[in-house]
Design brief:
Layout lengths: L1 H9 L2 H12 L4 H5 L6 E2 L4 E4 L2 E5 L2 E5 L8 E4 L5 H11 L19 H14 L9 H12 L4 H8 L5 H33 L1
Antiparallel strand pairs: 1-2, 2-5, 3-4
């Protein structure tokens, strides 16, 4: 979380929500770059994912998400809703079709433009190895640690099969084992002073 906080704080204000959506909603870059004002339901705290943008040598191509299951609604965690609201007010033009993260020219924000800022932010966090897509994996693992079932992870991530969701649940189980070991270590440290 400290690394994430550093990354967000280092990025320009107009790009911060991209990182938060990638992490806390486990979204792909193409899904985020194609988001429009109409896709954010503030009262319901939801983001609707129905399209994705691909960057090709000849230009951009907007189409459906990576898989059929990729079309989905994802609940936005309450702790980032203030940032969502701020972003909509400060950085998104009026109109339902306004891009949430436009380039300076008003088109889709190419990943290479983001990476100019991303590189500085990840280095500030001491994570020069971190790819933007790794945030999606972080989000999936966090959701598993928060108790998401395989079906819930599959729906949240937009996966067509449960195979990928199982990876994150396995990571959460490994983390649970580590937590259990840490709890035992704490218990033994607490008992030692009493034994003296």
């Amino acid at each position: 979380m400290a690394e994430l906080d550093t990354i967000v704080a280092t990025l320009p204000d107009r790009l911060r929500l991209m990182v938060l959506l990638a992490t806390w909603c486990a979204m792909r870059y193409g899904e985020i770059a194609e988001l429009r004002r109409k896709d954010i339901n503030v009262p319901a705290s939801q983001v609707r994912i129905t399209r994705s943008v691909s960057f090709l040598p000849g230009g951009t191509k907007v189409g459906p998400p990576k898989t059929k299951a990729g079309t989905r609604r994802v609940a936005i965690p309450p702790h980032i809703m203030d940032t969502v609201q701020h972003h909509l007010e400060a950085h998104v033009l009026p109109g339902a079709n306004a891009l949430l993260f436009p380039s300076d020219a008003g088109a889709h924000l190419h990943e290479s433009v983001l990476y100019r800022h991303w590189d500085r932010a990840r280095r500030a966090a001491g994570r020069p190895d971190l790819r933007f897509h790794d945030l999606r994996h972080t989000g999936a693992t966090l959701a598993a640690q928060a108790g998401a079932t395989t079906a819930e992870l599959q729906a949240r991530l937009g996966h067509a099969t449960s195979d990928a969701a199982m990876i994150y649940q396995h990571a959460a189980r490994q983390r649970d084992q580590l937590l259990a070991e840490n709890l035992s270590r704490l218990a033994s440290e607490q008992a030692e002073p009493r034994a003296r």
